[in-house]
Amino acid sequence: MIKKRIPNESRWFSCNVQKIKQKEFEIIEILSKEFSVKSLCEVINI
């Protein structure tokens, strides 16, 4: 189990790696409308 802090939240959330990866890909999908996918992946190290 990994604990990850969500920006603008004061508490830590327990979540598994799969959920974290899923959120990262959701973020890339949203931001890819304005930025290149390659650049986004480099920024978040995917």
Pick out its properties:
46 residues; alpha+beta; two-stranded antiparallel ribbon
SSE diagram, text form:
Blueprint: E1 2-5, E2 12-15, H1 17-31, H2 37-43
Antiparallel strand pairs: 1-2
Report the portion of residues in β strands: 15-25%
Report strand order across the widest sheet.
Answer: 1-2
The count of domains is 1
Note the run of SSEs as H and E. EEHH
Low-confidence stretches: none
Structural class, by secondary structure, is alpha+beta
Helix count, per DSSP? 2
Name the average pLDDT: 77
Fraction of residues in H or I helices: 40-55%
What would you say this structure looks like, in words?
Strands 1-2 form a two-stranded antiparallel sheet. The protein is elongated, with a radius of gyration of 12 Å. The protein has one domain. A hairpin with a 6-residue loop joins strand 1 and strand 2. About 50% of the residues lie in helices and about 15% in strands. The protein is an alpha+beta fold and about 45 residues long.
